[in-house]
Structures are given as C-alpha cells and as structure tokens.
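Customer escalation, tier 2.

The customer says the design service returned an amino acid string that "doesn't look like it belongs to this structure." They asked us to rerun it and document both sides in this ticket. The original structure tokens are below, unchanged.
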C-alpha cells in the first residue's frame, strides 16, 4: 500500500489548528485579562512565606543522585507491565529475557547499595 503526501494533510491541518488555538488563547487572554499590579502582588514569595537569604544556595549532590536513581528504577518497572500482560505468549524465551533483565537490574541495585548512594549523611 503506497501513501502519498495528501495522506498527511489531515495531520498537518490538525497540528495547525491546535497550535493556532493555543497561540490564539494566549494572545486573547493577555488582551482581555485584567492588568492589576500592586506592591503586594508583585512581591516574591514561596509557599506564602517571605523569602529569606539567597536563593542560589548549593544543594547536596545526594539529593539529585537519589532523584535520578528513583527515575531509573521507576522506568525499569514500566518494562515489567507489558511483559506481565504478555507472559503466556512470550513463553520460555520471554521468561529467560526477563530473568536477564532483572539480574542486570539487581546488579545495578546492589552496586548503588555498595556505593552507599541511598544513605543520607
């Protein structure tokens, strides 16, 4: 079955319509919306608390490391769901591949435990 460029015309039209709608709503809301500013409204705050000190304080690298490890292992779990749904169709070959996958996952997990990446100081 061959496709021509005309087959992509509805997709292009929908993309133009969606982008036009978003841009139009942003422009329309900026033109029609209220423009009230005051000293209190323009003041910086975080969670309703006055900000104190410099906002550019350094964070511990451990915080980012734990966040990255969480995302990594969370993404790994995403691969388990399709495998579990198609478990019977995949057969023994799918089981072997998942065992290898889980072993690699466990090796990484034990590595970060050995490096004490999840321990707070």
């Amino acid at each position: 079955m061959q496709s021509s460029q005309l087959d992509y015309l509805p997709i292009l039209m929908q993309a133009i319509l969606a982008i036009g709608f978003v841009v139009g709503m942003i422009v329309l809301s900026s033109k029609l919306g209220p423009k009230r500013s005051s000293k209190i409204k323009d003041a910086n705050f975080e969670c309703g608390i006055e900000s104190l000190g410099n906002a550019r304080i350094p964070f511990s690298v451990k915080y980012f490391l734990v966040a990255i490890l969480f995302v990594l292992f969370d993404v790994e779990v995403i691969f388990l769901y399709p495998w579990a749904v198609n478990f019977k169709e995949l057969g023994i070959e799918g089981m072997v591949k998942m065992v290898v996958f889980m072993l690699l996952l466990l090796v990484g997990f034990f590595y970060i435990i050995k490096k004490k990446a999840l321990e707070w100081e």
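Tier 2 assessment: The sequence is consistent with the input. Helices lie at 9-32, 61-78, 80-85, 87-114. The chain has a mean pLDDT of 85. Sent an explanation to the customer and offered a walkthrough call.
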